[in-house]
């Protein structure tokens, strides 16, 4: 074959491959698709969930500490309150240590949660709290310190070891492929609070990549990454998150007027809204005011958190109490590890809003 024809054939093949790739990579959901999906869900209400016996996402899902009895009991309490969704964090180190075992435990968790009528919103990456993580025995809680053992994923190791990206890509694609049609999963929260811990735009490359990987898999569930910081330094991140999320998710720990303004602003996107973090009593973000507003506005309501336990989130972010005495005003959480509530009035409000009052 003449060289010129061989060259032309090669160019044509490359062009077809590029075209095929472009056709098989999914795009963002349309506004219509997003709203049609949301209309089928009913009002979403729940918590960020970490069992009381686990200090972080590693301890929750490691085989030695995967506490199904506690998870089943605690999610039963959630069902009793009329909650129907839980936001749950994952960590890639569990996948690298034991891919099939990790996915099997996720399936077990989903079996338990769905048996209580609860869907799951899985969080993949996270820029919050401690930078160093390891598989194995996790640290004991530091008395009175909020989230003393929580770990980022992947953390700054992604800058020191660039090959980590290959592992993260394989992790995300395997995870999403394995569960892409699982109706027990409500939504994939691809990256929690990107740019936190002073990373700001350093987190942009990974944020862009995780959306790209998700679109290549094209799960049946929507994908999102929640807005959380209005500081102008986060303008680029916020813009990307808004322009690429199928469903708009966000965090707001402020009082009702501020939260209402946030909803009014985000509503202009025309897409469904889910608040994936709210409720900090010291900040006047409380169930009695915020939850009724979210229901009225048809915004999903997922507070932080549910059970007081090893995460120590009854203590405030920036106000450690080293004596570990239970504060008079809890910062987060609803129930103690024995199932008794911090506030009976909060329980009354929650049950009234979820229709569980007379059941």
From TrEMBL:
- What's in the keyword line of the UniProt record? Glycosidase, Hydrolase, Signal
**Superkingdom of this protein's organism:** Bacteria
Family from the record: Belongs to the glycosyl hydrolase 5 (cellulase A) family.
Q: Which SUPFAM superfamilies match?
A: (Trans)glycosidases
Q: To which species is this protein native?
A: Niastella soli
- Report if keyword Hydrolase is assigned: yes
Residues covered by the Glycoside hydrolase family domain: 145-304
Cleaved signal peptide residues: 1-26
Q: Which Pfam families match?
A: Cellulase (PF00150)
- What is this protein identified as? Cellulase family glycosylhydrolase
């Amino acid at each position: 074959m003449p060289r010129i024809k061989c060259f032309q054939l090669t160019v044509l093949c490359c062009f077809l491959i590029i075209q095929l790739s472009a056709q098989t990579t999914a795009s963002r959901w349309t506004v219509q698709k997003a709203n049609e999906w949301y209309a089928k869900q009913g009002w979403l209400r729940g918590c960020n969930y970490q069992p009381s016996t686990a200090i972080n996402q590693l301890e929750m899902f490691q085989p030695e500490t995967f506490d199904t009895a506690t998870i089943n009991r605690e999610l039963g309490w959630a069902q009793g309150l009329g909650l129907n969704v839980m936001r749950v964090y994952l960590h890639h180190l569990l996948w690298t240590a034991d891919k099939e075992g990790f996915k099997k435990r996720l399936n077990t968790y989903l079996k338990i949660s769905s048996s209580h009528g609860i869907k799951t919103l899985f969080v993949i990456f996270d820029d919050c709290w401690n930078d160093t993580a390891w598989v194995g025995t996790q640290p004991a809680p530091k008395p009175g310190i909020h989230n003393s053992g929580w770990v980022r994923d992947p953390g700054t190791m992604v800058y020191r070891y660039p090959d980590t990206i290959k592992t993260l890509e394989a992790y995300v694609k395997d995870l999403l492929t394995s569960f892409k049609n699982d109706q027990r999963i409500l939504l994939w929260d691809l990256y929690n609070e990107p740019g936190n811990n002073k990373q700001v735009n350093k987190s942009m490359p990974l944020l862009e990549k995780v959306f790209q990987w998700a679109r290549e898999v094209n799960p049946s569930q929507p994908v999102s990454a929640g807005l959380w910081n209005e500081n102008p330094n986060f303008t680029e991140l916020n813009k990307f998150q808004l322009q690429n999320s199928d469903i708009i998710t966000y965090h707001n720990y402020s009082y009702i007027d501020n939260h209402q303004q946030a909803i009014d602003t985000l509503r202009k996107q025309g897409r469904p809204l889910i608040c994936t973090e709210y409720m900090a009593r010291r900040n006047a973000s409380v169930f009695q005011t915020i939850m009724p507003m979210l229901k009225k506005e048809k915004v999903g309501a997922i507070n932080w958190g549910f059970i007081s336990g090893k995460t120590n989130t009854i203590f405030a972010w920036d106000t450690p109490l080293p004596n570990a005495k239970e504060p008079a005003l809890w910062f987060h959480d609803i129930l103690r590890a024995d199932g008794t509530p911090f506030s009976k009035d909060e329980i009354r409000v929650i049950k009234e809003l979820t229709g569980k009052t007379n059941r």
